[in-house]
Amino acid sequence: xxxxxxxxxxxxxxxxxxxxxxxxxxxxxxxxxxxxxxxxxxxxxxxxxxxxxxxxxxxxxxxxxxxxxxxxxxxxxxxxxxxxxxxxxxxxxxxxxxxxxxxxxxxxxxxxxxxxxxxxxxxxxxxxxxxxxxxxxxxxxxxxxxxxxxxxxxxxxxxxxxxxxxxxxxxxxxxxxxxxxxxxxxxxxxxxxxxxxxxxxxxxxxxxxxxxxxxxxxxxxxxxxxxxxxxxxxxxxxxxxxxxxxxxxxxxxxxxxxxxxxxxxxxxxxxxxxxxxxxxxxxxxxxxxxxxxxxxxxxxxxxxxxxxxxxxxxxxxxxxxxxxxxxxxxxxxxxxxxxxxxxxxx
Length: 346
Prior knowledge:
This protein is an alpha+beta fold. The protein folds into three domains: 7-77, Uridine Diphospho-n-acetylenolpyruvylglucosamine Reductase, domain 2 (2-Layer Sandwich), CATH 3.30.43; 82-194, Uridine Diphospho-n-acetylenolpyruvylglucosamine Reductase, domain 3 (2-Layer Sandwich); 252-345, UDP-N-acetylenolpyruvoylglucosamine reductase, C-terminal domain (Uridine Diphospho-n-acetylenolpyruvylglucosamine Reductase, domain 1). The chain has helices at residues 34-46, 48-52, 102-111, 130-133, 175-178, 204-212, 220-234, 255-264, 282-288, 317-335; strands at 7-12, 24-31, 55-58, 64-65, 69-77, 82-87, 91-97, 136-137, 140-141, 146-153, 159-163, 184-194, 252-253, 270-272, 278-280, 299-301, 309-311, 344-345. Helix 6 crosses helix 7 (220-234). 38% of the residues are buried. Pathway: Cell wall biogenesis; peptidoglycan biosynthesis. Belongs to the MurB family. It is found in: Cytoplasm.
């Protein structure tokens, strides 16, 4: 592996974030192998100015809202590679470099005959970013098939293996998002995919898609095709309309509040949780406040899905934050429910 890397100044990140914000990074480096990352750490330790900059690790740029100017050292992870490492009696252990595109990786696992990740098809971003957010959709979270990851420790300069219990996974959360986001850089991620695969069809849209096509016994690729079609019908393509996917987390509330809401709003969408709480549909709450299809000067709300904020042209991080705060205030005023933002503001 070649340790040489190119450290750039004042770099546009417009094409590197899915919301399409025309942000600029004070310093920028693209990392394609471990040797480059180790060499970068050495230079940071030797260069007082470089070492004083805050670090920001950029994957696919699909879950971030950037400021116009980032006074950071932005590190874009582009370590590639995917392989079946080994197998146990129950699982195939599949490893991917952090820089691999998530959706392309999912499709690769399916073409190789490894089912399990199909419900996470078409989620934007990279494999390395998937544990940070603990991505999830259609009844599955990344942690359900997570096996381990390898991370580079910028403090010690060593590699560390994280098992599932080390990652503190939560709902769209992990230790890498809320605890150690500045210390570790994820190098690769491994998944344990089941040999005895069973489809996850708890969402009605998925079951209906398969039923309408007379697919009584779906294969993993059939479920993936259903997920792709459903997502394309509801969510805008970031290549066409800048967005960061689902902008708000589905709030989890006590049963008492959910029951109060049902009395006032019988159509309130909710899902029971194992601890007795209920998950509410953030999109439904926002829609009831009249935000779906809203158009501001540069930022709006997608007409087909109130959960998605979109770039109408020339959006800034400040404008996105302002609209998000307006929506949060309206939802709290009407329903007494706090909405949490999914993307990270930088």
